[in-house]
Amino acid sequence: MTTIELDTVRKEFGDDIVAVDDVSLTIEDGELVVLVGPSGSGKSTTLRMIAGLEAPTSGDVRIDGIRVNDVQPQNRDIAMVFQSFALYPHRTVRGNISFPLEARDVPDAEIDGRVEEAAAMLDITELLDRKPANLSGGQQQRVALGRALVRDPQAFLMDEPLANLDAKLRKEMRTEVVRLQQNLGVTMVHVTHNQEEAMTMGDRVAVMNEGQIQQLAPPKEVYQRPANRFVAEFIGSPSMNLLSGSLSDGTFHADAGDVSVRVPDGLADASTVSPLTLGVRPESVQIVDTPDEYTFEATVDVVELMGNVQIVHIVLDDTEFLAEIDPDLAVEQGDTLSLRLPPEKIDLFDGVRPESPRIERTTDHEPSVGGTVVTEE
Amino acid sequence: MSVVEWTRHRLFGATEDPVSLRGAFRTIGVTSLVSVILVTTLFPLYWTVNTSFKPAPETQTFPPTFVPETFTVSPYVDILTGAGSSVLVNSVIVSVGATALAMLIGVPAGYAYARNPGKVGGKHLAFWILSLRMFPPIAPILPLFFMFRQVGMIDTYPTMMLLYLTFNVPLVVWLMRSFFQDIPQAVEEAAIMDGYSRLEAFFKVSLPLVSPGIVTTTLLVWIFSWNEFQFALVFTRNAAQTYPVIIPSLVGGHATLWNQVAALSVLAMIPIIVISLLMQKRLVRGLTLGAVKG
Question: ipTM greater than 0.90, yes or no?
């Protein structure tokens, strides 16, 4: 049983840099939580405070309810996998994996057995006598995982461990890490800047920006009900279309382009305070023949065929607007289209700043998002 | 292709091609230059060895003999039965002790600077340590002499070891600092997460990883301590006298024992050459460590 709790944890570097701004987060036993955010969002610093490699400026870190602020990292019984893998170049693969066991004075005979077992689990048995320099990136990654899991730690901390791998390998290892985590039933905190990785791996996703958690929820909820404009834009690829504008008489008027569309009843009277942001995911945008109150007209700038979909780029003054449509629809550059924003798939955000919150609908008219997360690569 | 083959090819193999004539001239130029450098650096070495096997009168003949006419090992016997053996022993004790002391102080200091840049001793301490190497060695000799004489520490082994710290510690600190900087911090953090204390991580991970750097630095420091002359001349009389001081004393008023000077020089060179050859592989790695990234 391992729960990790962060209680208003804050980390300041120097006098004016706040890396982590009063973050509170509870990671349940056996749960895989992904911290995701752009660089500088404080996700790695948060992880390093759980590890004990950084000391919080204020706030408490608790493992299984026990405050560990003053417990040295080597005594926290937490394994960590680093972005650079951080293998010991002077030791063989066997020596790398056995290293944490040697620290705990495990008898030699038992060490051998456990190293073999971990190696078998990761399919690196034939590499045991090699040095790290003679391994590929993916193999090094497996050794780093082996070193982490051989000692059966209370929790795993993963600091962008997949970022140095090529795209294909990254997807394979992603699946493998999740499988390992589920088989071992171990608590895991995984840090990444890759939203796709976050969506596919996490039981819950903590989206971070500027040292704060913007939203902590299961991936599906983060995607379908983003807490604010930042989350809406960060999660999903291509990003959600965001148009700033104002609302009057149930109709949204965008600042850019000639866009005036009706918003659903649940949102129409939500706010009349301008400015607002209207958000709609590219895959929700429809191309229709007959205009109605939910459509606007625009000219196609670029069409990208992705195989299973095609992405239509539209330029509204200085704002780019994307629509992801059926690849069989004949659309060409310069065409004028009627674009429909289905009312059940529209989100409104109360403001135009990243932290502007999403406005909840007053009626039980929840969006039913049909699309899936589209991969980045 | 060996250098000889390459040269031959350049000189004769392709002379029909007018363009390569230029290459041939370049080859002649490069070869001449290298020859000049080799002769000027190796000739003194050869001459020392040559002289060391001559009887004293033959060292004064003109024209000089390029191979000893009367081959003898008596210069070696004479110098070793004379002052030579004790000064060589002293040199070994002083240089090894001074090197060990400098490494013991300098390696942890270099590590501290590498891991906490700007924090250890503020931003000026690091420069101050480096600045110790900037003044001429003769400058601190007089004040140091009076200080050591005051505490009765002239002509002792510890005195010489301490004195050599003045120049060796800055070298060790700055060299080791850059060697440690080349070791990713994450590797140490991994060791800490694996259950080791910071100190254990240092000894089990960082130190083994900088071993080529340590070999290089040790050798540089040791060679300096082994060959140092000025401090040894002023601070030793007899008990702690090192070999470089003895050499000028053989240049006497009545006769200069060139053959014994040469013999002692050869004896002093041997350990440096042997150790350098033994360590060559690690030495080259150490000298180029950090030069090639990735």
Answer: no
